[in-house]
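Posted in: Protein Modeling Q&A

I'm a second-year student putting together a small comparison for a lab meeting, and my supervisor asked me to include a predicted structure for MFS transporter. I've never done this before, so apologies if this is the wrong subforum. The sequence is pasted below exactly as I got it from our records. If anyone can share the structure token output, I'd also love a short note on what stands out.
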Amino acid sequence: MTGSMPRKAALAAWIGSALEYYDFFIYGTAAALVFGKVFFPASSPATGTLLALATFGVGYLARPVGAFVLGHVGDRFGRKRVLVFTLLLMGFATFCVGCLPTYGSVGVLAPVLLVVLRLLQGLSAAGEQAGANSMSLEHAPEHRRAYFTSFTLSGTQAGQILATAIFLPVAALPQEDLLTWGWRLPFWGSALVVVVGFVIRRKLDETPVFERTEVAKLPVAVLFRQHWADVLRVIVAATIASVSTIFTVYALSYAVNTIGLSRTPMLWVGVLANIVALAAIPLLAGLADRVGRKPVFITGCLACGVLIFPYLWSISIGSYALLFVLGIALFGVAYSGINGVWPALYGEMFSARVRLSGMAIGTQIGFAVAGFAPSVVAAIGSGKQDWLGVAIFTAAVCVVAALAAATARETHRVPTAQLGGAAPAVPSTVVASAVDG
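Accepted answer (user: helix_wrangler)
Welcome! Here is the predicted structure, written out as tokens:
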């Protein structure tokens, strides 16, 4: 392994993750602001917005399917192929969204094409994080795996910040310009990131661990035969993403629609928390390389479970100063203890034969469950004082995720080649023959 390869793998993971989540978040913003009028004008304004937001959710339905398919490809044919494929697929789908004809031009074909492209985005996202995490983990120095894998999640935060920043001037355009050509610009802009990411990823070497691994003909079968408990453990632990969906969706709606706070300050809470997370994620990942994955991850879970109470309370009393401080502490710091560590914690549960499949399937199912958290807490109540029930629900999820992590093996001192009870190494010529065949 060359000294520069871990940095190249981390950079490739960062830029790919930034693109994936830039694309995902500009789609969500466009769905809320534009797509109801552009692709569903025959409906009432409220129905059009609901239909547009439904196309956003379609991407999450495709993720579990993508996890099985791309997990198989990554464990059968290599991490590099998945990383290049997911980057090009996401870039292609996003650019094409910007080129779509409107409902006024081609009728019902326009929203149909929009849904198809959204499905492609979901398939791509399912393999991106698992592929990037596997590549960076297997290239990383033994004693710094958490630090290097954390760049995937730093890229996620950067993508959210970039998506918010680029839509601010676009949303300020005159209504006619926004609905005709303005909304297309953020989607076309993703092509620049794709070119840079493609150049970087094409220059990556396949990981030495994968090259020495006996390739399974059906990795998913091996995964569920040998690592079913770890897959279940990842699914349960990954539901901690409910903190993110409740923070970004429920808390925003509660503050603006129920309490009557201004939308702009609430959006800035998220932006500033993401900026803080850019620094906190690698720092806390570095800590996990010294003290272990489980202590940092579990502490992050429990801290989120505690902080959600004063954060929602600060919203309920309308204190902007408190909600800024507590929001940044919750999402920028405590949640970064989770984001900075889970790529290593989850990835190190599996051997190289099934690592990409195990991470992809486990996380995407867990994330899909977390995606329903805002709907669950909305059912708890929508009154000004119902925040307490929401906080209790969120804290319970945090405790369950912490318990799932507590049952995992501590792996920060285990050599990369021995993670997950790895199979004996085989000659590279045998692996090459299996891959080519």
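A couple of things worth pointing out for your meeting: The mean pLDDT is 86. The first helix runs from residue 5 to 39.
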